[in-house]
C-alpha cells in the first residue's frame, strides 16, 4: 500500500513545475576582471545571481566560495523573488559607490571575506582548476557552481572591463557550466551598460548588474513590440 507520504511527495513533485526544487538560484554574471581599480583589495568585482523558480527564497546564510576559500555568509533577512536578479559585491565596497557606478533598481548585497583569508578574490587567470566559483547554502551544499575560464569555449578576458554573462537560452545551473553559453557584455545588449566613472569604477567596465534577460523576456518583448506596431498602424 502506498502511504500518505508517497501521495505528499507526488504532489510536491508535480507542484514544482519546470524548475527542480533546489535548482532555482543561478549564477548569471561574473565581473572577475574589471578595468576598474583592482589592486588589493579588489573592490570592483561582483557577481549576479538570479531566481528562475516560482517561489521566493531566503538567501540568509548563503555564501560564495572558490578553490581558495569562502566569504562570510549573508546575514539578515534577504529574500530573492521569482525572476529577480541580485548582485553580490565585496564587503569592503559600499552599496552607495556601487550604485553611483551601476545604478538603482535591484538588491546589492555586500559580502565580507571576499578577500584574504576568505575567498582571496575572483581569479583573473581562470583555468579548469581555478576560478571554481560556487554559491552555497547555509549548510555548505552547492546551489550552483561555475568553473569559469577565459579560453576554449569561454569568452576571452582581454581587454579588461566587460563582465561575462549567461545568454538568455541558458539560464539554468547546468547550462552555465558550458562556456559557449556565456558572452562578454556589450553596451546596449541584454541590459548591459558602461559603469559611470565614480567610486573607483572605470567606465571601460561593461555589465548588466540587476538585469537578466531570459528567452521568455525576449518573447514578451517581441509580442509587446508587435502590439505597439499594430496599435500605431
Ligand atoms: Ca579579479
Ligand atoms: Ca552550474
Ligand atoms: Ca546581468
Could you please describe the fold and organization of this structure?
The chain is of the alpha+beta class. It has one domain (26-232). 17% of the residues lie in helices and 23% in strands. The protein contains three helices and 14 strands. It has a six-stranded mixed beta sheet, with helices on one face. It is globular. The site of one calcium ion (CA) has 8 residues, from loops.
Biggest pleated sheet: 6 strands, mixed
What is the averaged pLDDT score? 91
Q: State the strand order across the main sheet.
A: 8-7-2-1-11-12
Number of helices: 3
Structural class: alpha+beta
Low-confidence stretches: none
**Rg, alpha carbons:** 19 Å
In short:
The protein is α+β, with helices and mostly antiparallel strands and 233 residues long. Helix content is 17%, strand content 23%. The chain contains three helices and 14 strands.
Keywords:
single chain; 4-stranded antiparallel beta sheet; alpha+beta; 23% strand; 233 residues; 6-stranded mixed beta sheet; 14 strands; binds calcium ion
Amino acid at each position: 500500500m502506498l502511504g500518505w507520504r508517497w501521495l505528499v511527495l507526488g504532489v510536491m513533485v508535480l507542484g514544482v513545475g519546470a524548475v527542480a526544487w533546489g535548482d532555482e538560484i543561478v549564477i548569471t554574471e561574473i565581473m572577475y576582471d574589471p578595468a576598474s581599480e583592482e589592486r588589493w583589495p579588489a573592490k570592483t568585482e561582483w557577481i549576479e545571481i538570479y531566481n528562475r523558480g516560482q517561489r521566493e527564497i531566503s538567501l540568509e546564510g548563503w555564501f560564495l566560495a572558490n578553490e581558495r576559500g569562502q566569504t562570510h555568509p549573508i546575514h539578515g533577512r534577504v529574500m530573492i523573488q521569482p525572476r529577480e536578479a541580485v548582485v553580490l559585491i565585496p564587503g569592503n565596497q559600499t552599496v552607495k559607490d556601487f550604485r553611483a557606478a551601476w545604478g538603482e533598481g535591484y538588491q546589492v548585497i555586500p559580502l565580507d571575506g571576499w578577500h584574504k583569508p576568505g575567498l582571496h578574490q575572483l581569479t583573473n587567470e581562470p583555468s579548469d582548476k581555478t576560478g571554481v566559483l560556487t554559491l552555497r547554502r547555509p549548510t555548505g551544499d552547492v546551489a550552483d557552481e561555475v568553473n569559469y575560464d577565459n579560453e576554449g569555449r569561454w569568452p576571452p578576458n582581454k581587454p579588461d572591463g566587460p563582465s561575462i554573462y549567461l545568454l538568455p537560452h541558458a539560464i539554468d545551473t547546468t547550462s552555465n557550466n558550458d562556456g559557449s553559453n556565456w558572452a562578454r557584455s556589450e553596451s546596449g545588449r541584454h541590459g548591459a551598460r558602461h559603469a559611470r566613472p565614480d567610486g573607483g569604477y572605470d567606465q571601460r567596465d561593461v555589465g548588466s548588474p540587476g538585469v537578466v534577460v531570459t528567452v521568455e523576456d525576449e518573447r514578451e518583448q517581441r509580442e509587446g513590440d508587435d502590439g505597439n506596431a499594430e496599435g500605431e498602424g
